[in-house]
Design a protein that fits this description.
This protein is mainly alpha-helical. The protein is 73% helix and 0% strand.
Length: 237
């Protein structure tokens, strides 16, 4: 991958999972300022009619009301989305929900919001890889098939990347090696997902291509598993 290799994406995912969500930043400070401003306004205009809060103010209030309770944050943000389904802040809210759900170990819900982010930003490779991982943890057939589709999207992104997109700090040789690593990683990942769906022939094809591009222990191990599967006699009725 040119400017953002898959390996870098995985590191950024780990950073994303532990970093406080930008949407939650400075919540207390903003709340304090908001309270002061509201007090001054109320004092100067005691008979003024109540103003309908903007979606931004509603969102901030949802965050403030959650305190440090991640479960409450999820409930409040979901309530905000229900009341403001067309809010331009949906991407940031979805990211905050993914983070909170990951901390709550609610992988299924985290995957659902991660998929919404990918739908809005198809070129967000870091989020696409995280979505694949979460869907794989889910493990059911529908989730695995969606994960394969996302893996194919990442693979196409890798294969489309060109040396002209690389950082000037990276040599052409290093870029080419990194692209091979990315390609073999995604092929191995897709092969593993296909194997979980018992699509042995397709999985073998991906894993063999992965090993051909750049030999790896992960691909070799899974090819070994396929070889063992083929040795087993088929069970009859």
């Amino acid at each position: 991958m040119a400017s953002q290799p898959v390996s870098t994406c995985i590191i950024s995912i780990l950073f994303f999972c532990v970093q406080a969500s930008p949407i939650c930043g400075h919540a207390l400070a903003r709340n304090e300022k908001g309270q002061k401003a509201s007090s001054k306004t109320a004092a100067s205009r005691p008979d003024a009619p109540a103003k309908q809060p903007s979606s931004e103010e509603q969102l901030q209030q949802s965050i403030n009301n959650s305190g440090n309770d991640r479960a409450a944050l999820v409930r409040n943000l979901e309530a905000f989305l229900k009341e403001n389904p067309d809010s331009h802040q949906r991407p940031q809210v979805y990211r905050a929900l993914v983070e909170a759900c990951l901390q709550l170990r609610d992988d299924a819900r985290a995957a659902a919001y991660a998929e919404r982010i990918v739908a809005l930003s198809p070129d967000d490779i870091s989020m696409t890889i995280l979505t694949i991982q979460l869907l794989e943890r889910n493990g059911d057939e529908a989730a695995l098939r969606r994960a394969i589709n996302y893996a194919t999207r990442v693979l196409e992104f890798v294969e489309r990347s060109s040396a002209g997109e690389k950082s000037p700090k990276i040599s052409a040789e290093d870029w080419a090696i990194e692209k091979k690593r990315d390609r073999t990683s995604v092929l191995t990942l897709r092969g593993r997902l296909e194997l979980k769906l018992k699509d042995v022939a397709t999985a073998q094809k991906d894993l063999e291509l992965s090993y051909e591009v750049l030999p790896s222990s992960a691909a070799a191990q899974q090819l070994g598993e396929i070889a063992e599967l083929k040795k087993r006699p088929e069970r009859r009725g």
